[in-house]
């Protein structure tokens, strides 16, 4: 959806066989990973300790189920160039650019409208660009089952649910009808009862132990037209705009019309706009596929111990560091820059060549507030 002028869409799929599309959401700013993540190079473009970026890993782990011609990315217009650099095999037409950030309901509506225009029966798998998942084969097994469920029953919406490993307060939860854990059918779908907001620690502990709650990974599978129908039912303003824009894709002046129309849309997540109201309907067709893979949303520096472990003092250390009477700290630096700590506990310390963060480890939202304050005070050079 880059503005390259009028064009023909790809060759249509074989008659009677719906397209399978992977749509990667890569528009986030990765604010809670400041100062490693910046506006010009947000989290999805970082390797976070590996050789490949999170965006590249997201595409590659799905490739056995999708050809590159059916991989698409929706991201902000400012990230078009780095996205192309990360995924040169993806056709340029599959780079869908949202002119302004309006959360996931609108951006996925735009993607669904574009793909439904190509194939009204297209099946969309949706995945965030900034998660770590392993092993790939188990992820592919879960996603394959979700695709099968939607192709078998076109009104179905499938979500991949993560079995909680701790009482996390920063995740949304999905409550299902029956307890999890069928050893004979690990991917057997379960009916969604309701969505639960980010809970307090007591409630999160109950959810983690119940066997009926999953973390919401933000990985969905649905028919493109079905998602558009649901937008029309629960978020009509978004549905009307995205379908009108898709109908005039790449015509003269289209980008400017899209920019103005998109800016007027409400900023709503797909969970709040569509999935939560749908879950309150009788026979909603909402299913969860239990995930049997390791998963981290790498949402903040608090995820670092899960990825890199802790030493005997509870510290997670990356780069050159010397610690004396230091415990329960997260330190990220380079091999060339030494960070030395003495008599401290419960801190996050992140050193980069142009900015250094020192924060309390127990305040997960603190970095977001800090970045907002930097923005307000005009420290944009470091954002």
> In DSSP terms, counting alpha (H) and pi (I) runs of 4 or more, how many helices?
11
The tally of domains stands at 2
Beta-strand percentage range: 15-25%
Shape: globular
Structural commentary:
With 383 residues, the chain is of the alpha/beta class. The protein has helices at 54-62, 80-86, 103-118, 136-152, 201-210, 224-234, 236-247, 254-263, 270-279, 304-308, 366-377, and strands at residues 20-25, 71-76, 95-98, 123-128, 132-134, 157-162, 173-176, 190-196, 213-223, 286-291, 294-296, 316-318, 321-327, 330-332, 339-345, 347-351, 356-360. The protein starts with 19 loop residues before the first strand and ends in a 6-residue tail after the last helix.
Tags for this entry?
globular; single chain; alpha/beta; disordered N terminus; Spore Coat Polysaccharide Biosynthesis Protein SpsA, Chain A; 2 domains; 24% strand; 5-stranded mixed β-barrel; 383 residues; 4-stranded mixed sheet; 11 helices
